[in-house]
Amino acid sequence: MTRAIRTLLVANRGEIAVRVMRTAKAMGIRTVAVYSQADANAMHVASADEAYPIGPAPARESYLRIDAILDAAKKSGADAIHPGYGFLSENAAFAEACEKAGIVFVGPPASAIRAMGSKSAAKALMEKAGVPLVPGYHGEDQDAGLLAREAERIGFPVLIKASAGGGGKGMKVVRSAEDFPDALASAQREAKSAFGDDRVLVEKYLTTPRHIEVQVFADSRGNAVYLHERDCSIQRRHQKVVEEAPAPGMTAERRAAMGKAAVDAAKAVGYVGAGTVEFIAEGENFYFMEMNTRLQVEHPVTESITGQDLVEWQIKVAQGEKLPLAQADIPLHGHAIEVRLYAEDPARDFLPQVGRLDHLVLPFHLQGTRVDTGVRAGDTVSIHYDPMIAKIIVSGADRTEAVRRLDAALAATEVVGLATNRVFLKAIATHPAFAAAELDTNFIARHQDQLLPPPQPVDDTVLALAALFLLKEEARQSAEAVDAADPWSPWGLAPGWRLNRDAHVDLNFADRERRIAVRAHFRPSGFILSLPGGDMSVEGEAEADGTLRARLDGVALSARVIRTGAHLTVFVRGGEYGVEFIDPRLASQAATGTAGRLVAPMPGTIIRIAVEEGQEVAKGAALVVVEAMKMEHTVAAPRDGRVKTLKFAVGDLVDEGAELLVLEDA
Questions:
Q1: Partners of 240 in the beta sheet?
Q2: For residue 88, how many other CB atoms are within 10 A of its CB?
Q3: What is the DSSP track for 496-530?
Q4: Cβ neighbour number for residue 556 with a 10 Å cutoff
Q5: CA distance 383 to 376
Q6: Any idea what DSSP says for residue 133?
Q7: Which of 16, 168, 208, 503 is deepest in the core (most CB within 10 A)?
Q8: Alpha helices by DSSP H, 387-537
Q9: Peptide bond into 209 cis (omega under 30)
Q10: Distances (CA, A) of 553 to 165, 534, 536, 538, 607
Q11: What is the end-to-end Cα distance of the chain in Å, rounded?
Q12: How many CA atoms lie within 13 A of 190 on its CB side?
């Protein structure tokens, strides 16, 4: 029996909410958004036909409140709810509450969510079904001593994983028995914070595995199919960085074997809707890892190679319709790759960043490129939610073409206002090992020196473009200020007209600790710049959006320079470079450096203080643990010393840069 969905409430935020609404509207379905106080002006709110407030910024007081979401559904007349991913998407109680309220839950039945929601229970179920498992402990007894003994039995290194969730939260690699107690406690805290459940499982940690997952779909009429596989091996902190479909090197025979195992897993729990069965593969073997009972972040690569809209499939199945295609009819064309553009600082161990997106350009216009985003220029990346800015998805006739398009898409991406992983992603896209599809979960660690090189000084090209931008900006401002009655007055010219002397301007820049003086000599067609590497002839034009069309010693190139206060960000040849303009007209301000201070790496909550005032500590010892965006960040002692003063207590909120404690010489 089918039931047409007329109004769909999306119980989520950001890019997934926007993406679900796009398909719903294309199907003629009215859309409803919900939003926290922090998201009142968010993109997903603007994308919906209606939007309802559901509470304060913290997710537990808004996006995780079942009562508030159901109240919004009742007020809006929604007859269905799509949970997106994250938040309540894999919450069996939420699915049951929707059913009880007479609202269609666009997802699997609560029984399937519950069966697969516990990694331990799911593995026990798969073991009965004959699906191969990685050696490990998946029991209910969570005694710390028992878990430590099980780890010894399995053999180090082992992987501790939160039983109730994913996304890398509550997941720790432990290489020795001595490290196990602290790692277990940290994993349990993260699991409790992220999922409200501190249970964990312990497994053998495979050293060079590939992470391959299979997209499955089932309807309420007993049909189930798989839509091929995705390779998600390139990860950082157990979080996916690059996803692609199909998996490189996958044979038709192995695809069929993994697909059958995935479908069998779905059927074993009476699954309905979209799901992903994740496997870990090493050599010729593959092992069941977990099943995600929701739409995955990386679903666009599957859509690209099959030509299907998986959200449309979800809605049709939720309406009681049969699957749109049978297994034999599911196509596989070309290759697709997705990367996740995050607000995070690779130079600071990928710490999540919060702040305003002063400038944002995403590669919507490029052929073979799709961008899913939930933010716009001027929006703020909040401490309360995942710091993903966008998903950039490229497709091509084969993997080689897709890799080329990925490089081009990342080169065309521009973000100013906070640090991102764009340059890091581009380094992956252009790495020879990535081109050769030499993939496993240790890819980033193995190539870290090439992917995360130390910062280099800006070169003469960057300095010339920065100088040209400033000179054009000054000329435009001066021209606007000149008295219209005497526009040719030499006293109003930007060069600073000098009688019988060469007209020039001195510009001073700072590149980290380096100070650079650039002298610009004015010429009829442009400038001669005196740069660290010698003189350079420069000419060109600047547009209002910062675009430069320049000629440097006759070489034509396009670039963009974005100015935020004294900081200039130069985008050229696929790279981005930052310099500070030292403006002599501005009053100098004393720097407030943080060298030697023990400060909060980002805004967050103090969840653990590992020391007391007066305690002597050794270099590298854990001092304070700050939780932000559901991840823990440990502040360690930079040297041997004694704790003189603790500035905060457990539970306190701290701003980025806040001094946490004072460490004196012992």
A1: 235
A2: 25
A3: ---TTS--EEEEEEEETTEEEEEEEEEETTEEEEE
A4: 10
A5: 17
A6: B
A7: 16
A8: 399-411, 422-429, 432-435, 443-446, 448-451, 460-481
A9: no
A10: 57, 11, 6, 6, 57
A11: 75
A12: 28
What tokens appear for 651 in the block? 């539970």
Instruction: Please list, in sequence order, all residues whose beta carbon lies within 8 angstroms of the beta carbon of residue 315, skipping any fewer than 6 positions away.
Output: 5, 8, 23, 24, 27, 29, 80, 82, 106
Question: What one-character DSSP code corresponds to residue 347?
Answer: G
Average pLDDT over residues 107-128: 86
- Per 3-state DSSP, the chain is made up of helix, strand and coil in percentages (nearest 5) of 30, 35, 40
HSE at residue 116, side-chain half, CA atoms within 13 A, is 28
pTM for the full predicted model: 0.82
Both structure tokens of 531: 């740069």
Encode 466-502: b = buried (16+ Cβ within 10 Å), e = exposed: bbbbbbbebeeeeeeeeeeeeeeeeeeebbeeeeeee
DSSP state of 212: E
The C-alpha angle 476, 480, 486, rounded to 5 degrees, equals: 120
Q: Which one has a higher pLDDT value, 366 or 477?
A: 366
- Which tokens sit at 322? 């049969």
Q: With beta carbons less than 8 A apart as the criterion, state whether 621 and 637 touch.
A: yes
Residues 379 and 370: beta-carbon distance below 8 Å = no
CA 140 to chain centre: 33
As a whole number of angstroms, the distance between CA 394 and CA 571 comes to 21
Handedness of CA 324, 328, 331, 337 (dihedral sign): positive
Q: Given CA atoms 138, 144, 148, 150 in this order, what sign does their dihedral have? A: negative
By the 8 A CB rule, do 190 and 314 touch?
A: no
* Catalytic hit among 210, 236, 255, 294: 294
Taking the C-alpha atoms of residue 293 and residue 287, their distance in angstroms, rounded to an integer, is: 18
Residues 104/5, Cβ–Cβ less than 8 Å = yes
Burial class (CB in 10 A: 0-12, 13-18, 19+), 49: middle
The chain-wide mean pLDDT, for the chain, equals 90
Confidence bin at 481 (pLDDT 50/70/90): low
Would residue 279 be called left, alpha or beta, if left means φ above 0 and alpha means ψ between -120 and 50 degrees?
beta
The first and second tokens of residue 85, run together, are 């991913």
β-bridge pairing 104-105 and 80-82:
parallel
Helix (H, G, I), strand (E, B) or coil at 495: coil
The DSSP bridge pattern shows strands 224-231 and 659-664 to be unpaired
Which residues have C-beta within 8 Å of that of residue 443, sequence separation ≥ 6? 233, 234, 428, 433, 434
What's the token pair of residue 508? 């001073």
**Encoded amino acid at 221, one letter:** R
Structure tokens at 283: 């050599």
Query: In angstroms, what CA-CA distances link 417 with 33, 343, 351, 407, 428?
Result: 27, 10, 15, 22, 23
User: Which of 654, 617, 613 has the alpha carbon at shortest distance from 636?
Assistant: 617
Closest residue by Cα to residue 34 from 16, 50, 15, 57: 50
Question: β-pairing, 50-55 with 30-36?
Answer: parallel
Local confidence band at 109 (pLDDT 50, 70, 90 cut-offs): very high
**Strand ranges (DSSP E) for 258-352?**
273-282, 285-292, 335-342, 344-345, 351-352
Q: Alpha-carbon distance 545 to 24, whole Å?
A: 34
How far is 655 from 81, CA to CA, in rounded Å?
36
Q: Scan for tokens 């703020």, then name that residue.
A: 380
- Letter for the amino acid at 179? D
CA distances from 657 to 575, 598, 627, 635, 661 (A): 28, 9, 14, 12, 12
Hey, what's the torsion of the CAs at 69, 72, 73, 77, to 10 degrees? Answer: 180
Task: Report the alpha-carbon distance of residue 54 to residue 63 in Å, rounded.
Answer: 7
376 is catalytic: no
pLDDT of 544-592, one tens digit each? 899 999 999 999 999 999 998 889 999 999 999 999 998 775 533 333 3
